[in-house]
């Protein structure tokens, strides 16, 4: 059974911790943790967006990193043109490069959504294993496309000389400021997703996962609902890509690699599918574990692999189910 | 000249095609019978290449090295099936993806520990190192011809195995109704392990043959795995015949696109731009092909469980 009191408490404690983290880290003299947790928030955002389709919609997208990469490249390419001084395009209208966050971040979401629309429209014609393989293949296609962008560094990617600009006093080069901006965006995205999953739209998407045939009989068109969810999810991933580009001050094809997509799935499942907050916890657990294992041994993946196997076989409800006493509602 | 180039590239495409078929056959069999998606299939390809590269100097013979590597790779495959994957057959595909993703990380790191991060170069056997003039004036590497021959021989072998033998009959029966097969007294578990081993051996064979053509390195399995997925999706999940057609199609289209697109684009734009764009367009061609096939037939060309 869903335990609302316990879940609310867990969310509040988590939020309080994340709000206090920069102070705690600086007080302990370990400012490095602010940077690490910024990464966690950004990947958390990407994982939440994946949870929307994976957990709620039952669509196992193995190419979600592609949308993250698209968002990152939107920021990277426009920033490159600022540095280079050349316009992005001259026909039919002249577009200059820009680093204005109010332009590039929404643009990153728009591009993420647009790519998701095209890829989703084709992929959603299939289900099950085919869907997994096709989303993987499309992500791989974008990966090679990015490598082919020789103007923008090809395989080496783009090093950003500047971060996106918000309104003047807010300086994203300050790591604490950037951390709180990421936290704010994550909280906002979580709020939007929570409303969405509880709306009629969200119910229809979940209905399509549980019993597609029945949804059709009720007069819904599952394909359109699923595609809409896919596009929203792609837009969320695009936003996280824009933040990731700013965090790393770098954009490269590696952002779209299939390992990244796999890691995002791991974060969602580790945290708990269909819980929205769980994937944030999953992202934290995964990145902290990675950090810790990498400290332990150079060959940390040989430990991480079996851990994944173990989690899949024995711990199906995910961290959130353990923390908040709930799994996905229909189980 | 163009015709000769076309013939040469056609053979290259055929060679890539049969290699992909070796991979796809095992993967599609495992899917058809156990309803299982196995990302770690590429790891068997990698293991096959590494084992062959290790044995080749020991036996001083490429062929013997392959013969030694195949049963070992099959054993690795069967061990993985028994230890890790057996519990996952009845789980969701998502669980299988995650678990086998973990296996890839494990195998990649294991290979890195045992053989080191540097690529290994594997020499083709000396008697196949030269070139053959397929038609006067067109020399073609003998080893690549051998790959094509081996691939086609395996296709015939699989056809005979599946349609003419008792094991093949059980494989077909397992694909159409697992429960009934078990009820008839067949040891389904053993059959699964066997098929898994067969798939692993085929992937290892592909890896061993690819060794002298490409570099033997960590992560070599994943790039071919994703191509194999494209093949299987185009051919239709679970169909060996579909895997053959899909593999040849993907091999041809990919190779010809890489060879011809830059040339074609050069007639329309400056060479430096044409080469860059041609290369990235060429690596996208097979995905566009896949999208086109799916738009036309969402279940692939030869759906197995129609």
Automatic annotation (TrEMBL), chain B:
Membrane topology: Multi-pass membrane protein
GO molecular-function terms, A-Z: transmembrane transporter activity
Family: Belongs to the binding-protein-dependent transport system permease family. LivHM subfamily.
GO biological-process terms attached to the record: amino acid transport
One Pfam family hit: BPD_transp_2
Entry's transmembrane regions: 12-32, 39-56, 62-85, 97-115, 142-162, 191-210, 277-296
UniProt entry keywords in alphabetical sequence: Amino-acid transport, Cell membrane, Membrane, Transmembrane, Transmembrane helix, Transport
Signal peptide residues on this chain, from the entry's feature table: none
Upper lineage: Bacteria, Pseudomonadati, Pseudomonadota, Alphaproteobacteria, Rhodospirillales
Protein name (Swiss-Prot/TrEMBL): Branched-chain amino acid ABC transporter permease
Listed GO CC annotations: plasma membrane
Predominant place of localization: membrane
Location(s), subcellular: Cell membrane
């Amino acid at each position: 059974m869903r335990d609302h009191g316990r879940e609310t408490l867990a969310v509040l404690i988590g939020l309080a911790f994340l709000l206090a983290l920069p102070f705690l880290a600086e007080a302990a003299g370990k400012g490095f943790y602010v940077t690490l947790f910024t990464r966690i928030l950004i990947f958390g955002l990407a994982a939440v967006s994946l949870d929307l389709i994976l957990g709620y919609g039952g669509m196992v997208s193995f190419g979600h990193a592609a949308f993250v990469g698209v968002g990152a490249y939107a920021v990277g390419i426009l920033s490159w043109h600022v540095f280079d001084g050349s316009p992005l395009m001259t026909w039919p209208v002249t577009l200059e490069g820009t680093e204005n966050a109010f332009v590039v971040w929404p643009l990153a979401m728009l591009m993420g959504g647009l790519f998701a629309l095209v890829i989703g429209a084709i992929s959603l014609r299939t289900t099950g294993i085919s869907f997994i393989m096709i989303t993987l293949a499309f992500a791989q296609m974008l990966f090679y496309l990015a490598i082919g962008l020789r103007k923008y560094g090809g395989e080496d990617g783009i090093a950003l000389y500047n971060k996106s600009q918000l309104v003047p006093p807010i300086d994203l080069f300050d790591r604490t400021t950037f951390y709180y901006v990421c936290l704010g965006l994550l909280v906002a995205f979580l709020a939007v997703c929570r409303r969405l999953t509880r709306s009629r739209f969200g119910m229809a998407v979940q209905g399509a996962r549980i019993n597609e045939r029945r949804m059709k009989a009720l007069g819904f068109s599952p394909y359109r609902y699923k595609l809409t969810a896919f596009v929203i999810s792609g837009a969320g991933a695009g936003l996280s890509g824009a933040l990731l580009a700013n965090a790393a001050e770098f954009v490269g094809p590696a952002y779209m690699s299939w390992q990244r997509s796999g890691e995002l799935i791991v974060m969602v499942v580790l945290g708990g599918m269909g819980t929205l907050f769980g994937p944030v916890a999953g992202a934290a657990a995964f990145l902290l574990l990675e950090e810790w294992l990498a400290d332990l041994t150079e060959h940390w993946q040989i430990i991480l692999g079996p851990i994944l196997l173990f989690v899949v076989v024995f711990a199906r409800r995910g961290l959130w189910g353990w923390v908040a006493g709930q799994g996905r509602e229909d189980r | 000249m163009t015709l000769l180039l076309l013939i040469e590239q056609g053979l290259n495409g055929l060679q890539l095609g049969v290699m992909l078929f070796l991979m796809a056959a095992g993967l599609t069999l495992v899917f058809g019978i156990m309803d299982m998606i196995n990302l770690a299939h590429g790891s068997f390809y990698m293991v096959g290449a590494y084992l062959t590269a290790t044995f080749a100097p020991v036996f001083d013979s490429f062929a013997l090295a392959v013969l030694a590597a195949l049963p070992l790779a099959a054993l690795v495959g069967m061990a993985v099936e028994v230890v890790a994957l057996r519990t996952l057959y009845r789980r969701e595909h998502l669980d299988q993806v995650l678990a086998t993703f973990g296996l890839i990380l494990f195998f990649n790191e294991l290979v890195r520990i045992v053989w080191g991060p540097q690529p290994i170069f594997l020499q083709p056997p000396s008697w196949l190192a030269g070139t053959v003039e397929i038609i006067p004036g067109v020399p073609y590497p003998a080893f690549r011809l051998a790959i094509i021959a081996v691939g086609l021989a395996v296709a015939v072998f699989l056809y005979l195995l599946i349609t003419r033998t008792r094991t093949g009959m059980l494989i077909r029966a397992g694909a159409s109704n697992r429960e009934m097969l078990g009820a008839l007294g067949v040891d389904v578990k053993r059959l699964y392990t066997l098929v898994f081993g067969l798939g692993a051996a085929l992937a290892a064979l592909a890896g061993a043959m690819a060794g002298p053509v490409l570099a033997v390195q960590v992560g070599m399995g994943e790039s071919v795995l994703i191509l194999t997925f494209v093949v299987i999706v185009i051919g239709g999940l679970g169909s060996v015949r579909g895997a053959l057609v899909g593999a040849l199609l993907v091999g041809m289209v990919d190779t010809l696109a890489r060879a011809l697109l830059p040339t074609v684009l050069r007639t329309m734009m400056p060479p430096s731009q044409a080469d860059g764009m041609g290369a990235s367009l060429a690596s996208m061609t097979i995905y566009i092909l896949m999208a086109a096939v799916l738009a036309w037939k969402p279940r692939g060309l030869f759906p197995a469980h129609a």
